[in-house]
Amino acid sequence: MATGVKKAAAKTAPRRAKANRSEGFGDLARQVRPGERDGTLAHSELSHSIGFLLRLASGVSQGRIGSKLDALDLRLSLYSVMLIIRENPGLKQQEVGRTLSIQQPNLVALINDLAGRGLVRREVNAGDRRSYSLALTPAGEKLLAQADKMHVENEQKLAALIAPMKVEDFE
User: Quick check: pTM over 0.90?
Assistant: First the structure.
């Protein structure tokens, strides 16, 4: 094979059972609300902890986008990898891993999954023949455009909830 990876030996990221990803954080969010039947957290100091509430909001947001991406047979990790590859065509596989803080064995499984589905192509890096440069295929571009719409919609809903705060406020 051109990529040097035997199909039989190629590792792919295991498929996870589809589930409502926001359930766990959604349950926590309900517990924080005063007056809820199981409002254990509503009376806790955690309900006033900015760090806890930010983590909760992040979990709910990631769960919601994860549920939407399931319709495209994507996980948030795969979406993130595809996004970095689109924004940096020709980026080495190792650089994608460093950028997203994904360990090499996990990244190989993610890239194998994307390549096996025809969404990403590996090309031997001209400057270093031991490494691969990555690019999205036309099918990858199309799927990523659909995922981007879902992501933007999710971000807009989250922004409406936390407005008028802005990312710059956290610097």
Answer: no
